[in-house]
Amino acid sequence: QVQLVESGGALVQPGGSLTLSCVASGLTFSRYTMNWYRQAPGKERELVAGITSAGGSTNYADSVKGRFTISRDDAKNLVYLQMNILKPEDTAMYYCNAQRTSNGLEYWGQGTQVTVSS
Questions:
Q1: What is the rounded distance in angstroms from the CA atom of residue 91 to the CA atom of residue 6?
Q2: Rounded to whole angstroms, how far apart are CA atoms 5 and 25?
Q3: Contact 72, 64 (CB under 8 A)
Q4: Confidence class of residue 56 from pLDDT cuts 50, 70 and 90?
Q5: Which of 35, 60, 74, 112 has its CA 20 to 30 A from that of 45?
Q6: Is the predicted pLDDT of residue 55 greater than 90, yes or no?
Q7: Rounded Cα gap, residues 112 and 116, in angstroms
Q8: What is the C-alpha to C-alpha distance for residues 104 and 42, in angstroms, rounded to an integer?
């Protein structure tokens, strides 16, 4: 059974930093592209950042470029999202996503809440 479990969400002040983690089990982690998505109330889920298998390349939403960094540790089945200079508009539920484009498999975590407010 595949599981993705996010952690690290919290209430943080504007300008602050936060690191989200996602641990995966039940899959060959290194073969998956790992993504972070977010969804704010009343808005569609959007891709925040992604990192390909073996960390070959990363991509970011324009709104977070220069502030967020995605990384992965294949030995520990972990993917991280380092978030700096947080803004109120970053407030959302953040979801971990695993994709294997070769066979169309995709998995989601349950999400972790990030709230940026003073």
A1: 16
A2: 9
A3: no
A4: confident
A5: 74
A6: no
A7: 13
A8: 28
**pLDDT value at residue 101:** 83
- In angstroms and rounded to an integer, the radius of gyration of the C-alpha atoms of the chain is 14
Q: Which two tokens stand for residue 98?
A: 């695993």
**Strand ranges, E, within 26-104:** 33-39, 46-51, 58-60, 68-73, 78-83, 92-100
For range 103-117, the mean pLDDT: 96
Collapsing DSSP to helix, strand or coil, 29 comes out as helix
Query: Residues 53, 54, 55, 56: is their CA dihedral positive or negative?
Result: negative
Residue type, 13: Q
* Among 44, 92, 30, 43, CA closest to 64: 92
Integer Cα distance of 47 and 58 in angstroms: 12
